[in-house]
Amino acid sequence: MKTAPHCVILIDAGGKIVESNAVPGSNAFQVGVVLPDAHPDLWLHVKQQLSGEPQPNAATIYSNGKTFRVWVTPLFRSGHEPLAVCVIENHTELDQMALKMRAFKDLSEELDAIIDSSDDGLWVCDAYGTVLRINAASERMNMVRAADIIGRSMEDLVEEGLIDRSVTIEVIRKRCRQNIIQRTRSGRKLILTGTPVFNGAGEIIRVVVSERDITEIDSLSRKLDEQMAIKDKMHHQIREMQLSRTTDSPLVARSPSMVKAVKQALKLSQVRTTVLILGESGTGKGLIANLIHQHSDRADKPMIEINCGAIPENLVETELFGYQKGAFTGADQKGKPGYLELAHQGTLFLDEIAELPLSSQVKLLRFLESARVTRVGGTSSRQLDVRILCATHQDLDKMMAEGRFREDLYYRLHVIPIHIPPLRERKACIPPLIQHYFNHFTKQLGIEEKTRISREAMDVLLAYPFPGNVRELVNLCERMVVMADENEIRIDDLPDSVLDTAEQCKADQMVGFQKNRSLAQMLAEAEQRILEQAKRRYGSQIRMARALGVNQSTIARKMKKYVQS
Ligand SMILES: Nc1ncnc2c1ncn2[C@@H]1O[C@H](COP(=O)(O)OP(=O)(O)OP(=O)(O)O)[C@@H](O)[C@H]1O
């Protein structure tokens, strides 16, 4: 009877404790303590029991910040004052525990409500990958019922094909936080983060997995990518149109070498092979590339043209192959598709291919061999359907020998080359080209009468070597149409630089040893040519004589001789 927390006391009718097993020295429930003074609540309960009225004999009493459970049994003896036997149990700790339990239960209910109201999915697994709980969002995303999943191992769920892979298994294996992309059976795309929970001994006790459905975000981001790509393409096309307002005109080919190149291009337009177009600057390589694309079965898809030399070296790779988000500091947050991706199903024309840095040459070769592209900073590759056309005015053989162009790429590109001859080697193309561009510019400038060219002016242009090739001819035609006073272009309408070079070329051809001709004949021809040129340049015989360092009568005599002859 002497052990706490149970205390048994005997109380007389006056409320005094007459017997007690309370621990001696403690200030509660000791013999002699008068209940009405020390414990009024307890006395009230005891008094009710002693009054003989039917009352529940158990009660809870609070005293000095403690909680007691009290059972009172009255003892009625005839001839004696009644006594009460009182059993008191200290419930303070139990009470606190109950309070804690309630708080814990409230917290747990609150947590359940939060977890279940979350739009993000949540899985909790044990250290062996057994599912302990999943929330309502996860049930929806994975189209499962918690009851069918709880207690199952993640390995089984992967095996059954419910999910394609498990982040829980990864977390248990690698013992750290993991992120993965997962595809559900219904085709949804989820992003999962698995976090391990460790005990004090460093052992994994739980894996908590949060999952978010990114199917919509993914498709929106793809749509955004596509929109951006369309925008880029349009920018590109507008720039192209501005740059080459003449490229919409038909391609002129008269000389056999050019006709051969065009026929070759038309033939190649029917197959998917990579084509390398070689030729000096301005010979029409871009036009040939366009011709191939326009006659191919992908003509309704875009042809994207990139001048490899115009892109800064450090940007070439990302421009061509694109980059993944966060690939480098300053990278676009969403990542960016490269030109190869933008040209998907169409044609990519890589002009000035020789300018491609060696590092990008390797990547291009890999693309040509696999048709797959991996964005810079990316880990997965994408299969593409892109036809590649390349062009250069550089001597690739020489560059390869100097180690500036990769041999493997050279042979990969050089399978079918098209050579476009310089304009000076296909003079037959010059008259139709001039006529074509005269028509083009008179129409463009709104000039009513057609522009023609005099025989002499045409002769000069036929002698001119056109170092800038057709591009130079196009510019010259525009200039002539704009500047000419009459509708016929005469020698005087030609720029001095063209006249001088053409004359020089003619002279070079003329002056020189010619088989079966006498020295006198050759000198006479040279003299006649010089006089003709001087006449064109100076007009009057006096000015010609001054320029040639002879007197005017010599000029007059010689002019007469050559006119008569
Ligand atoms: N055969 C042709 N018929 C009509 N126009 C032509 C022809 N060849 C070239 N041109 C015109 O000449 C200009 C230059 O052509 P293009 O840009 O295709 O040359 P390129 O060889 O690609 O030059 P670059 O090496 O500098 O890129 C364009 O305006 C083009 O329309």
Automatic annotation (TrEMBL):
<dbReference type="Pfam" id="PF25601">
    <property type="entry name" value="AAA_lid_14"/>
</dbReference>
<dbReference type="InterPro" id="IPR000014">
    <property type="entry name" value="PAS"/>
</dbReference>
<dbReference type="Pfam" id="PF18024">
    <property type="entry name" value="HTH_50"/>
</dbReference>
<feature type="domain" description="PAS">
    <location>
        <begin position="107"/>
        <end position="160"/>
    </location>
</feature>
<dbReference type="GO" id="GO:0006355">
    <property type="term" value="P:regulation of DNA-templated transcription"/>
</dbReference>
<dbReference type="InterPro" id="IPR058031">
    <property type="entry name" value="AAA_lid_NorR"/>
</dbReference>
<feature type="domain" description="Sigma-54 factor interaction">
    <location>
        <begin position="251"/>
        <end position="482"/>
    </location>
</feature>
<dbReference type="InterPro" id="IPR025944">
    <property type="entry name" value="Sigma_54_int_dom_CS"/>
</dbReference>
<keyword id="KW-0804">Transcription</keyword>
<protein>
    <recommendedName>
        <fullName>HTH-type transcriptional regulatory protein TyrR</fullName>
    </recommendedName>
</protein>
<dbReference type="Pfam" id="PF13426">
    <property type="entry name" value="PAS_9"/>
</dbReference>
<dbReference type="InterPro" id="IPR009057">
    <property type="entry name" value="Homeodomain-like_sf"/>
</dbReference>
<dbReference type="InterPro" id="IPR030828">
    <property type="entry name" value="HTH_TyrR"/>
</dbReference>
<dbReference type="GO" id="GO:0003677">
    <property type="term" value="F:DNA binding"/>
</dbReference>
<dbReference type="GO" id="GO:0005524">
    <property type="term" value="F:ATP binding"/>
</dbReference>
<keyword id="KW-0058">Aromatic hydrocarbons catabolism</keyword>
<keyword id="KW-0805">Transcription regulation</keyword>
<dbReference type="Pfam" id="PF00158">
    <property type="entry name" value="Sigma54_activat"/>
</dbReference>
<keyword id="KW-0547">Nucleotide-binding</keyword>
<dbReference type="InterPro" id="IPR002078">
    <property type="entry name" value="Sigma_54_int"/>
</dbReference>
<dbReference type="InterPro" id="IPR035965">
    <property type="entry name" value="PAS-like_dom_sf"/>
</dbReference>
<dbReference type="InterPro" id="IPR025662">
    <property type="entry name" value="Sigma_54_int_dom_ATP-bd_1"/>
</dbReference>
<keyword id="KW-0067">ATP-binding</keyword>
<dbReference type="InterPro" id="IPR000700">
    <property type="entry name" value="PAS-assoc_C"/>
</dbReference>
<dbReference type="InterPro" id="IPR003593">
    <property type="entry name" value="AAA+_ATPase"/>
</dbReference>
<dbReference type="InterPro" id="IPR027417">
    <property type="entry name" value="P-loop_NTPase"/>
</dbReference>
<feature type="domain" description="PAC">
    <location>
        <begin position="174"/>
        <end position="226"/>
    </location>
</feature>
